[in-house]
Amino acid sequence: GLFPNRKKVDFAQMLHGQCKKVLEGLDALHSWAEGKELNQSKVKEFEREADELRRILIEELNRTFVTPFDREDIFALSRAIDDIMDYADRTVDEMEIYEVKANYYVLE
């Protein structure tokens, strides 16, 4: 073939990895909101790691000619997953800025 050393990219696995990282970030957000985590740095750390996973996925998407399902769908799904982590990150920022303490409603 044209690309004999080109490995097959498992986009489903990459999306799954991105989801797992976001779940870790949401767990960290919940712990922080419960007061178990003393600072927001864990949420920020997971947000950076999730961004890096998305960057790698996009890079592979741009390099891959044939994808297992529509490339726009892969891109949109990755973006939607990333948005969830961004919202969690922003929640931490805004709660800190406005000095909002977590309560029952925030945890729900």
Q: Sheet with the most strands?
A: none
Approximate shape: elongated
**Low-confidence region ranges:** none
The radius of gyration is 17 Å
Mean pLDDT: 91
What is the total tally of β strands? 0
The sequence of SSEs as H and E is: HHHH
Query: Which class of secondary structure composition applies to the elements?
Result: mainly alpha
With helices defined by DSSP (H or I, 4 residues minimum), what is the helix count?
4
Helix content bin: over 70%
Distance between the termini: 54 Å
Portion of residues in beta strands equals under 5%
Describe this structure in words.
- The chain is mainly alpha-helical and 108 residues long.
- The protein is built from four helices and no strands.
- The protein has helices at residues 11-34, 41-63, 71-97, 104-107.
- The longest helix is centred in the last third of the chain and has 27 residues, at 71-97.
- 23% of the residues are buried.
List strands and helices in order, with pairings.
Elements: H1 11-34, H2 41-63, H3 71-97, H4 104-107
Helix pairs in contact: 1-2, 1-3, 2-3
